[in-house]
Amino acid sequence: MLQKIKLLAIFVVTSGLLYQSVQAQMHSSDTVHSDHSITIIAEDYAYQAPNQIPSGWTTIQFENHGNEDHFLLVAKVPDGKSLDDYASQIVIPFNEVWYALRDDGLEQELVFEKLMPNLPEWFAGIEFMGGTGIVPAGASTQVTLNLNPGTHILECYYKNEEGEMHSVEGMLRELTVTDSQSDAAAPEADINITLSNFEMDIVGDLKPGKHTFSVHLVENPEQGFGHNVHVVRVDDNTQAEEVLRWINFTEIDGLRTPSPYTFAGGMHLMPAGETAYFTTEMETGRYLFLSEYTGHLGVVKDVTVE
Description:
With 306 residues, this protein is α+β, with helices and mostly antiparallel strands. Helix content is 21%, strand content 35%.
């Protein structure tokens, strides 16, 4: 009986989620955009963004107008799939696993065993195209992605103080990338990051000021969700292992408001062999560059800006 109540609650949440997402699309198509540059605004809990953009290199000015940290993950879904499909068949199974961890004591080692049978076959056809790292409330960042024609889903799966995923609260949005090709070129980077199994290499002169980073992903691991980059400013006493634990979605307090750290953007999951770009302001001090899913395997860098 309890399980039936939980499933009913999940269905009700999903219905509310889809309603909020559709409403967000109805009122947020007038954000600033051109053939090669768009603005996406994160709120608690919705995105304001254009409904469609040309394919090719697109620079995204990502502004967090909310009171909580947010990020942007761009997922290209297979032809014929929509926001409704993504919400009901992808987000809800992830949310069920999260509830099992949070409320029922599911062991972290069993997460994938419980999750994978509940995902549709088309999940394997999703291409994560990049996005931002974590952006604090009131802050902004810029990323440049090479987007292919098709239906893309914008998602933030950060958690609020009550432990509810932002995506379930409404931070999902559909973006159509058209066949029309943007004439924009990739930006010039002054810092180059290379991600591989299992290493992060950073080349360039990191000093105070604004930097444009290129992120080249050589390969993704055969299992799991691949490499990404979160940039976080830390003090001399902070251990990388502490931050890696906190950005682990399966931890009860992981990726959960309030954040104990000050993040400065980055680059989210992207296809192997591709390059994307992010721009952020660096201050004097110590920074960690970490991969959310593979940092514990060595994809992390500890740097000092001076």
